[in-house]
Amino acid sequence: MAEPPRDDDALPPEVARSRTISIVWLVPLFAVGVGLWLSWDAYRQRGPVITLQLSNAEGLEANQTRVRLLDVEVGMVTDLAVAPDFSHVVATIKMDKAAEAYMVEGTRFWVVRPRIGPGGISGLSTVLSGPYIAVAPGEGEPTTEFAALTVPPPFAPPEPGRRFVLTTENLGGVARGSGVFHRGLRVGQVVDYRLMPNDRGVEIDVFVPEEAAELVRTDARFWLANGIEFHLDATGLRVEMTSLEAFLAGGIAFRSPLDSLAPTAPDGQEFALFRTPQDAEDAKGAGTVTYMAYFEGNIGGLRTGSPVLFRGVRIGRVLDVRFDFDPVTASIRVPVRFEVFERQLFVDDDAPSVTARRQLDALTAQGLRARLVTLNIVTGDLAIAFDEVADPPPAAIDWAHDPPIFPTVPGSFDELQASLQDVLRTFRGLPLEELAEDFRRIVQGAADLLTSPGLTDGLDEAGAAAAVLRTLLADLQAELPGLLATAERTLGEADAGVRELRRAIAGVTDVVQGVDRLVDGAQTVPYDTQRLLQELRLLTRSLNQFVDYLERNPEALLRGRR
To answer: Which of 60-69, 255-264, 456-465, 519-528 is predicted with the least confidence, judged by mean pLDDT?
Structure first.
């Protein structure tokens, strides 16, 4: 029987290797691919890293403080460090990819904190969330180094309108965001201000929306609106308020003449900004001429802006007051430069300067002079007044000088001071010592008289006489009622006697009349009887006259007839 084959005699198995990649390897390959894609996407989405110089890092924290554009987060502060020279703080900021396009030289950064200003309260939300860094895109070459602004940038108007430039010597109370007012209504706002080249003043940019820009004409006048203005004149004290907002935060007001036919001001038009409405009104109509005058005496109350008056009407203002050394006389003079609004004083649209010169020459020849007058006795404010002086020394305007020199005369206060000096000189010329000696002798004589024994005795006797007189008057006062009563009784009795006498006279009259009738009836009457009748008639007439007198003057019984 055949022997079965052994396992050792079997052929070794052949291992066939697959020529394809195993699907298992796809997992790590996929992971590597995803990682590479994520890395590329992260690299592609990574924004620029910039550095920002800050004056300080108040309220800022690394990995906490955001960077925002229009309140949308576009970056994060990753590091804060002090500069090597300790002059500022350097913040490292990681910006989003979307912000890379405007990381250019013109882009501006600033820190937003709670702020109270003319434009209102801003950054109030940062009270709870903390400050953040705001960014405003600009234009220029790409860069990664920036310097933060210390204040927010100028206002960017969200609506169409026009910008105007105002020039002034002093900024006053105007700030970014201050209002621009027309007839008390806010129609615009201040967007920026800056110093003019060569320190010639300040330029202020204002923005007025298009619907209100038509109000700004080329002859408009701008002035500082302080909110409340006080005016004291002949009519009394007047208080005017532009607006409460202008009173609290300041502002600028403007207005054009009511009869203005000027066109609307274009964008970028430049205007002068005046200090007060009066200054703006004075400048209306342009055409000012500058003069110079030399005044003597104290001019402490004269300052820049003081008025120039002609018959009480303001026609100009003082520009400056200086000191000038005159080498000819080796003395210091005080030249005062002032300007005159000649169109308010001389009206000639064709040639105002020529007309003004001709008329001023004629008035100067008749005695027109410039002098200092006191505006306010309490404050000592002075003004220049054009007055017509009677019989002044000959003088004329020096047109050859630049500016022309106007002739002057001493002011009213100087004349008063000169008069007082004359009085003092006259007083000093008096023989004061002799007058004082005479006055001393008079006083001494009066003192001797008052202390003399004769005067004392006379005063004592006068006192005794006065006492006697008082006693006499007292006795008379005591006896007077009785005397008056007696006089009344006497007058009453006299009146009764007069009545009785009147009746007796009437009886005698009747008898005489009866006798007259008998005589008239008789044929012959003796002469003696006729003579008796005549005497009776005369007696009756005299008694009637006496009785009439007593009736008119009963007091004659007491004091007799005068």
So the answer is: 519-528
